[in-house]
From TrEMBL:
Pfam families: PAP2 (PF01569). CDD domains: PAP2_like_2 (cd03392). Keywords: Membrane, Transmembrane, Transmembrane helix. This is Phosphatidic acid phosphatase. Residues 93-205 form the Phosphatidic acid phosphatase type 2/haloperoxidase domain. The keyword Glycosyltransferase does not apply. The keyword Membrane applies.
């Protein structure tokens, strides 16, 4: 039993670290290109192409989608859900949501200050934005928080895992697209936000899974349910 559990931990480590390593490499590559302004021409061409598809109806749809990725809204959602889970004695699930939310917001703020990239100014904005551009907070924080919610939902409803994964992925992609649609982020901001969000999500999930496995070696089934 112990051998199988430690083997599972090793597998999780290898897969998680491999994905995280690739995401970190991609983020570092994007960051270097952004600092050297090597992506400016492509970023600009993509945004100008998206401007041509603007319509009043699509504007309203995109406003609704971008609202679902507001960092303040997502932070409140993660803390509220975390509070509900804590009240129901799901301590580790509450913890991962709180860490995913607070950590993603704090890390994104620090990265924006570090890179201090100006936002696009290719046309008049129809939504209010502030602070720096790289990486996108909507992309990064929605990936981390919605990803954490999806992970927890799958643990409760494993038979619906592909539906949960598909819906969550489409929502996160739509949020990122909405920021490009409004011209408030460069495309590289969005990609970098996704990679940073993925790294943070993997760290949160990895920590919980390893903690649960080690705790499972020491607890009774009743205790495991209370701490799950």
């Amino acid at each position: 039993m112990r051998t199988q559990l430690f083997s599972l931990i090793s597998t999780i480590r290898v897969v998680g670290l491999a994905i995280a390593a690739f995401a970190m490499w991609l983020f570092a590559t994007l960051a270097e290109d952004v600092l050297d302004k090597e992506t400016h021409a492509l970023d600009t061409a993509i945004l100008l192409a998206l401007q041509r598809i603007h319509t009043p109806l699509l504007d309203q749809v995109m406003e609704g989608i971008t609202f679902l990725g507001e960092p303040d809204v997502l932070l409140v959602v993660s803390l509220l859900l975390g509070g509900i889970l804590l009240w129901r004695n799901h301590r580790s699930q509450a913890t991962i949501l709180a860490i995913a939310g607070v950590g993603a917001v704090g890390l994104n703020y620090w990265l924006k200050i570090l890179f201090a990239r100006d936002r696009p100014a290719l046309w008049d904005r129809v939504i209010d934005v502030r602070f720096y551009s790289f990486p996108s907070g909507h992309a990064m924080i929605s990936f981390a928080i919605y990803g954490a919610i999806a992970y927890l939902a799958i643990t409760h409803y494993p038979r619906w895992r592909w539906l949960i994964i598909t819906f969550t992925s489409l929502l996160i992609l739509a949020i990122g697209f909405s920021r490009l649609y409004f011209g408030v982020h460069w495309p590289t901001d969005i990609v970098a936000g996704y990679t940073a969000g993925l790294i943070w999500l993997i760290a949160c999930i990895f920590s919980r899974e390893v903690w649960r496995t080690y705790r499972g070696l020491e607890q009774s089934p009743t205790e495991q349910m209370k701490s799950s």
